[in-house]
DNA sequence: CAGTGGTCTAGACCACACT
DNA sequence: GTGTGGTCTAGACCACTGC
């Protein structure tokens, strides 16, 4: 952490409270919301990277010229959104997929028996990894245009030797320059952790559409089931900061002996 | 709202701050957590019912002999858990399933096309409604004992005349005395709203296990699909306040033209 | 010990709803 | 206007971490 306090140029925004004139409709926004936006911007630009400690609440308060309590409220909300992690006595850190506790946070497939998590990390087998042009469908999901360069990865995940998940993954080519079959094969650990470490892309949020489908010939072969067997189809769009889509994937899950767990509230 | 301030007997707990003695390990718990527990208790006992306004923050502060800010923090957390709803200028209200915005909050089946919600309310057809003894499985899910009285409801939900969901629902008999086929048939609107209004049971949280299965003969007939067609199996345990299980249900969803939507974060 | 986040308070003022 | 929740501040003190 720098010991020198931030210069005032760190505060491009004028003090919103000075806009005390009774003008028209200034679209009131609470200070802490604005602070939240500023912190988000620093996350997005990579000023603070996943795993890093961000400046202390008092430092940020000085930098943004607000009280510590206001910074606190902003951080509170970012922490409940899982963008930041607070650790008492140590500091506040940028959340990451590279920690034991938050690993596989987006993988909801669990064994039916036993309350424990997913029987250790899965074995990965890459079926395909190639660069190509986005189809209309892929482009739409990734918020790009048909023909944009994209990277397709197809892989099978197995638990204790038994194939369980077949995934087709599309990534925007620009953000993942240099991602190759070797990069993926050499890596152990969650794919999203690799994305953070190598490409500075942190997945923050995802939306899934789930259906029951019958296995087609390809899926049946790769998942070692008979054609037509019911599989869970899980379509996911994953987003980085500020709701920018960065991945589209379709998974086919075998759910004999396993289930997709979801919590409603 | 009562105009008389609460007597001190409303505060059975001694002021936790007076425990200043350097005793062993007092299991430190923040004041606002304790307030949260007290509020939860009033929700559980029905002192404040779904839809009711709870006392203002200042009233509660006086009642619990803490500052308004501390009550606020307690309410904040209960509000983010969807147990309470804040409405600026009006008050804080006990959350309910009987409002347009929170209706069908636990029903995640949406049409594939169109971003709008579930094509209007579903048509309900009750197939079965009978009292019986809990099987070992049902008893385990409801936290009771084999042989306990339970109520089973079996029904089909249709959208625009097309059957989409087949549900088997088990409820603890004690809490739902007087629930009959007529009660269910006469009611329009969400089942969980009926539970609140008639039995004072508010569903707060639920856990679902999702699988892909093939339709059996019964399901095929009731959902108008061919036997073996892939269906989404959604097993749910729903809880009231304080994680008391109050419902176990298994749904079979047709997912041709619809999907189960889930958000990860 | 110093530095960090966590709790609690008290008071001022703003925004919104109702009457 | 009155009463509600919503924001912001300033300061005191507690709890945890690591030197």
Structural commentary:
The structure is a homodimer of 265-residue chains. By secondary structure, the first copy, chain A, is of the alpha+beta class. Chain A has two domains: 22-94, Arc Repressor Mutant, subunit A, CATH 1.10.10.10; 109-260, Chorismate lyase (3-Layer(aba) Sandwich), CATH 3.40.1410. Chain A is 25% helix and 31% strand. The first copy, chain A, is built from seven helices and eleven strands. In chain A, the strands form three sheets. A six-stranded antiparallel sheet of chain A has the order 5-6-7-10-9-8. In chain A, a hairpin with a 3-residue loop joins β2 (84-87) and β3 (91-94). The longest helix of chain A is centred in the first third of the chain and has 15 residues, at 31-45. Residues 1-26 of chain A have low confidence and may be disordered. Chain A binds chain B through residues 80-82, 105-106, 108, 112, 204-214, 228-233, 235-236, 253, 255, 259-265, and chain B through 80-82, 105-106, 108, 112, 204-214, 228-233, 235-236, 253, 255, 259-265. β8 (205-214) of chain A pairs antiparallel with β11 of chain B. Chain A binds a DNA duplex (19 and 19 nucleotides) through residues 17, 28, 30-32, 56-58, 66-70, 72-73, 75, 86-92.
């Amino acid at each position: 952490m720098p010991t020198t306090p931030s210069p005032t140029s760190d505060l491009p925004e004028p003090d919103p409270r000075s806009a005390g004139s009774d003008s028209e409709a200034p679209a009131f926004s609470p200070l802490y919301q604005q602070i939240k936006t500023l912190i988000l911007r620093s996350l997005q630009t990579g000023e603070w990277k996943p795993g890093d400690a961000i400046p202390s609440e008092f430092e940020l308060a000085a930098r943004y010229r607000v009280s510590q309590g206001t910074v606190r409220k902003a951080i509170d909300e970012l922490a409940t959104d899982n963008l930041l992690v607070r650790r008492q006595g140590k500091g506040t850190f940028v959340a990451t997929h590279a920690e034991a506790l938050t690993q596989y946070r987006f993988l909801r497939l669990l064994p039916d028996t036993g309350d424990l998590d997913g029987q250790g990390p899965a074995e990965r087998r890459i079926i395909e990894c190639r660069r190509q042009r986005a189809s209309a469908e892929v482009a739409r999901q990734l918020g790009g245009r048909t023909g944009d360069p994209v990277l397709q990865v197809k892989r099978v995940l197995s638990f204790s030797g038994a194939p369980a998940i077949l995934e087709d993954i599309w990534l925007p080519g620009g953000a993942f320059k240099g991602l190759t079959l070797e990069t993926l094969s050499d890596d152990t650990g969650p794919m999203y952790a690799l994305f953070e470490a190598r490409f500075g892309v942190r997945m923050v949020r995802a939306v899934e559409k789930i259906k029951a489908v019958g296995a087609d010939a390809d899926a049946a072969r790769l998942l070692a089931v008979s054609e037509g067997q019911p599989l869970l189809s899980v379509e996911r769009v994953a987003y980085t900061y500020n709701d920018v889509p960065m991945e589209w994937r379709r998974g086919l899950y075998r759910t004999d002996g396993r289930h997709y767990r979801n919590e409603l509230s």
